[in-house]
């Protein structure tokens, strides 16, 4: 029997893909969930669908993680709706892939703003609740490429490697309040993000792992559920690789 001492989760980028699967899994485990997404309509629709499917309280909010004021307001609204926040899943992310000599200033700035600064700002917006006494959980989504490098993703990889730094430092700062902080480095997973990759590269990359199949959003959601559960009560500052054995 798996128990959860936490019960009120915020998931950024929860309208679709990994974020939606994570939100659904946490709702199935009995947590109340607030989905935050720059796609407000999507956030509300996904929240309603998950609530209907799971019977848990799930609310959707429009929120751009690069807008600091918006982020603080929405975290307050989410806390009001859920009766507090004890769990943060930092998942919102984008890609703007090009070989590094062709990356524009905007390609660099935007990916760092969403994938690194947006994760830090989400943590800071959640700080009043995560620094309260009592059990808390933070899971930040990095990427396998932060370990391996990859062609045409210098902006994305710099941000995702930075997320590992946020995991380690937030684990040290939040431990005294009973909040654990861990990361996940997903391998290639089928989602709207990877659906945009060229078909031939996509097929080859997706199945290039020991298990020979494409990762699914539910594979990542399972890892998040573990890290949020009481089974992971003594796990903090760690980064879990979920990639079918593509990289050790
Ligand atoms: N799919 C993969 O293979 C894979 C692998 C490793 C890591 N990841 C990471 O997992 C996370 C989710 O990826 P995905 O595949 O589900 O992507 P996705 O594009 O399908 O979903 C990302 C969600 O984030 C939202 N979002 C984007 N910018 C935002 C912003 N500024 N503020 C708030 N929300 C914003 C989008 O609207 C979307 O709903 C990302 O951080 C991604 O980098 C994905």
Notes on the structure:
With 248 residues, the chain is of the alpha/beta class. Helix 1 packs parallel to helix 2, helix 1 crosses helix 9 and helix 4 runs parallel beside helix 6. The chain has one domain: 3-Layer(aba) Sandwich (Rossmann fold), CATH 3.40.50.720. The model has no long low-confidence stretch (mean pLDDT 97). The chain is 47% helix and 15% strand. The relative contact order is 0.15. A 7-stranded parallel beta sheet has the order 3-2-1-4-5-6-7, sandwiched between helices. Strand 4, helix 4 and strand 5 form a beta-alpha-beta unit. The chain binds nicotinamide-adenine-dinucleotide. Nicotinamide-adenine-dinucleotide binds next to helix 1, helix 4 and helix 7.
Q: Name the structural class.
A: alpha/beta
Q: How many individual helices?
A: 9
Any idea of the CATH topology?
A: Rossmann fold
* Shape estimate: globular
Rg, alpha carbons: 17 Å
The CATH architecture is 3-Layer(aba) Sandwich
| Average pLDDT metric | 97
CATH class: Alpha Beta
Straight-line N-to-C gap = 30 Å
Number of domains: 1
**Low confidence ranges:** none
Order of helices and strands: EHEHEHEHEHHEHHHE
- Most strands sheet: 7 strands, parallel
Helix content: 40-55%
Bound molecules: nicotinamide-adenine-dinucleotide
Strand order of the largest sheet: 3-2-1-4-5-6-7
Q: Report the portion of residues in β strands.
A: 15-25%
CATH homologous superfamily grouping: NAD(P)-binding Rossmann-like Domain
How many strands?
7
């Amino acid at each position: 029997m798996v128990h959860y001492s936490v019960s009120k989760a915020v998931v950024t980028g929860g309208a679709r893909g990994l974020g939606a699967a994570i939100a659904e899994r946490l709702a199935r485990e009995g947590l109340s969930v607030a989905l935050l997404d720059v796609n407000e309509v999507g956030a509300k629709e996904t929240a309603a669908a998950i609530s209907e499917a799971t019977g848990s309280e799930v609310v959707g909010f429009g929120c751009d993680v690069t807008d600091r004021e918006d982020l603080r307001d929405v975290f307050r609204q989410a806390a009001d709706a859920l009766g507090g926040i004890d769990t943060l899943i930092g998942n919102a992310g984008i890609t703007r892939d090009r070989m590094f000599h062709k990356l524009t200033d905007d390609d660099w700035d935007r990916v760092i703003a969403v994938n690194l600064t947006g994760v830090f700002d989400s943590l800071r917006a959640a700080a009043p609740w995560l620094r309260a006494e009592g059990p808390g959980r933070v899971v930040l989504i990095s990427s396998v490429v932060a370990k391996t490098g990859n062609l045409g993703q210098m902006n994305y990889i710099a941000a995702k490697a930075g997320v590992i730094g946020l995991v380690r430092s937030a684990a040290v700062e939040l431990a005294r309040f009973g909040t654990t902080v861990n990361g996940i480095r997903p391998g290639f997973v089928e989602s709207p993000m990877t659906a945009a990759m060229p078909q031939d590269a996509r097929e080859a990359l997706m199945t290039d792992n020991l298990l020979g199949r494409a990762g699914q959003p539910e594979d990542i959601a399972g890892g998040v559920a573990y890290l949020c559960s009481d089974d992971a009560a003594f796990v903090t500052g760690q980064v879990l690789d979920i990639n079918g054995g593509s990289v050790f």
